[in-house]
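ERR on first pass: missing label on line 2. Operator R.T. fixed the label and resubmitted. Corrected input:
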Amino acid sequence: MSTKRIAGPEIERLIQLLAKVPGLGPRSARRAALHLIKKKEQLLSPLAAAMNEAVDKVRICSTCGNVDTADPCMVCTDPRRDGATIIVVEDVSDLWALERSTAMNARYHVLGGTLSPLDGVGPDDLTIGKLVDRVAAGGVTEVILAVNATVEGQTTAHYVTDRLAGLSVRVTRLAHGVPVGGELDYLDEGTIAAALKSRTAF
Amino acid sequence: MSTKRIAGPEIERLIQLLAKVPGLGPRSARRAALHLIKKKEQLLSPLAAAMNEAVDKVRICSTCGNVDTADPCMVCTDPRRDGATIIVVEDVSDLWALERSTAMNARYHVLGGTLSPLDGVGPDDLTIGKLVDRVAAGGVTEVILAVNATVEGQTTAHYVTDRLAGLSVRVTRLAHGVPVGGELDYLDEGTIAAALKSRTAF
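pass 2 clean. output:
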């Protein structure tokens, strides 16, 4: 697809847009486009329809920041969930990851990122104020900070803890330690030190 | 996205369909879906439109087997191309790869695969008959067999050569040798032997 045109602009446009999808690059986008075109009825057409439907229906939950076709979202309106516990995450993908673990049955709060002064991300760019409002409204007994174990994540966790300080709510964070199935030989020193420090009775 | 539902079925359907795109798996499809939803206006909406347009307009060229929005395709109707040379390829992706090299300015013929008796692919499942017809119609002086250097590709090349035997056309194939930029140390013995055998004056 260089100087000489070998196909209509519609195909090149499809390739260009596919190349912007995370996980695909310019080369794999070309392969993907060709596969989609070959499976027009079975894959390309349903995928286009599913995308159109997502464009029309998907919105951000105004309570927790989850993405869903309903607002408030399914998680916020699910009566079987424990409304007294809010798990704070950086991104919707983290919410999904926690749900896959099926370990908790709580509600969530998506911050929308981490504090990062260098990138110009301050507290007002995240949904921290909304979280404080949710907790201040009452009924919440525990806030679990499930942010990433990165410098930015931990900085954000500290800031959120400060903001929640005046409210009668227990603030906890995820445990550090050896990943299940993990081998000590491949772990960094920080994780091993944290796992030793938080050792439990056998 | 396990037993408990955390989002509407529209989002899960989008993820399921994205997971069928080559280059994406179940995990990266989830990440891709989230990214697309977040970039609704900039990416999801244009991509859905581009796919719909491809569904409507893209077709297989009835002459050469290329995919395009026109039939005959741009390659077949381009008056600046040398119609006397036909490059035979297995798949449209090979046609695109050859065009990227910009080495030739010929027309193409897409076989649609290789002969593979074990998989039940016989000569009638490929477009070999059509190629013979194109050559028999006259005006073609050379057929370049640009099939893959695999057992199936070479078997198919031999069969195509046999079928073209009665016609006054020169049948050639791609040279074997050291890839440009390739290191001998990493090449297989077959390639080195072929490169030695086809050595040229320096």
